[in-house]
């Protein structure tokens, strides 16, 4: 059995939940592979991990992997993830969300999860659109882009997920792309390993709903765009401002070692009650 087949058999609910729903060429399948390789590479046991997802094509990933999994409601993955982490801090809790899920309907939960620095890894699969429901615009749809709900071009400005999450106080902020898979594996592994709230924005193209309305008719067109648009952060910062136009930096944007909320909470409990009181035999207590 090849290494890849072994991983598939070990980590996927391959005999229950497949065939998958992703369109051929969708970036979300590449993220699924990266997630599995990262968890495997970190040597985590399946029961050490809890995957929490919202609703969307991206959210289907939770159904396919054989960890503890919770497929929650649209926009609320981080609320469930926060509760799970506070109840069982030993779990590696990973929330998987689309841009609509995380930054449109779920935007409020996202900024507060970052502010609280709760020990959750957030993987945001940004395809600039609501993929599952037919291609409505989201909070990350670029200005001028055509969508089902902006047939004359998006007029609103879009969020920069890296800037927003960094400003909200997350410990770790990263951006990767599904075209740059080795780097993506490294970023996802780092975000899982580190303390506090760590977010990876993953540019994961949807040619079906976004690309075909915006001059990228095929998946290949979208991957070619990723190849030419994404540049490593260090290289991007060394570029002249006029050369940065239409480029997207990828890599590490923030990395702090602050304790996560669940660790601060455990410290507080210890300080309030240094030695657990033992029940006195026969006292009924
Ligand atoms: C409360 C609620 N509102 C709206 C919906 C409908 N809905 C399901 S998925 C989705 C958008 C998904 O887009 P995104 O999160 O970007 O993920 P993608 O499908 O692009 O991966 C919407 C609006 C819902 N299920 N629940
Ligand atoms: S609609 Fe878009 S996001 Fe959904 S599976 Fe197809 S390509 Fe992927």
TrEMBL record:
Highest taxon, organism lineage: Bacteria
Molecular function terms from GO: oxidoreductase activity, acting on the aldehyde or oxo group of donors, iron-sulfur protein as acceptor; thiamine pyrophosphate binding
InterPro entries reported in the protein's UniProt record: 2-oxoacid:Fd_oxidoreductase, THDP-binding, TPP_enzyme_TPP-bd
Single biological process term from Gene Ontology: small molecule metabolic process
Domain (Thiamine pyrophosphate enzyme TPP-binding) ranges: 55-202
Signal peptide start and end residues: none
Keywords: Oxidoreductase
UniProt entry tagged with the keyword Kinase: no
Protein name: Thiamine pyrophosphate TPP-binding domain-containing protein
Native species: Alkalidesulfovibrio alkalitolerans DSM 16529
């Amino acid at each position: 059995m090849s290494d890849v087949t072994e991983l598939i058999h070990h980590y996927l609910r391959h005999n229950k939940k497949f065939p998958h729903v992703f369109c051929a060429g969708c970036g979300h399948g590449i993220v699924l592979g990266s997630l599995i390789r990262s968890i495997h590479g970190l040597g985590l046991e399946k029961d050490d991990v809890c995957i929490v997802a919202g609703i969307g094509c991206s959210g289907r990933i939770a159904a396919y992997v054989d960890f503890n999994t919770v497929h929650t409601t649209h926009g609320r993955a981080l609320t469930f993830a926060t509760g799970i982490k506070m109840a069982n801090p030993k779990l590696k809790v990973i929330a998987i969300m689309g841009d609509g899920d995380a930054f449109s309907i779920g935007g409020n939960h996202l900024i507060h999860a970052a502010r609280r620095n709760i020990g959750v890894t957030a993987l945001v699969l940004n395809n600039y659109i609501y993929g599952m429901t037919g291609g409505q615009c989201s909070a990350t749809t670029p200005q001028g882009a055509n969508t089902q709900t902006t047939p004359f071009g998006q007029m609103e400005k879009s969020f920069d997920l890296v800037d927003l999450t960094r400003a909200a106080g997350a410990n770790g902020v990263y951006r990767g792309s599904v075209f740059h898979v080795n780097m993506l594996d490294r970023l996802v592994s780092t975000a899982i390993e580190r303390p506090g709230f760590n977010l990876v924005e993953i540019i994961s193209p949807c040619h079906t709903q976004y690309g075909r309305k915006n001059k990228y008719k095929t998946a290949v067109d979208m991957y070619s765009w990723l190849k030419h648009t994404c540049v490593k952060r260090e290289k991007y910062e060394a570029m002249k401002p006029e050369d940065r136009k239409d480029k997207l930096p990828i890599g590490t944007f923030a990395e702090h070692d602050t304790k996560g909320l669940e660790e601060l909470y455990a410290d507080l409990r210890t300080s309030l009650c240094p030695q657990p009181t033992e029940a006195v035999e026969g006292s009924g207590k």
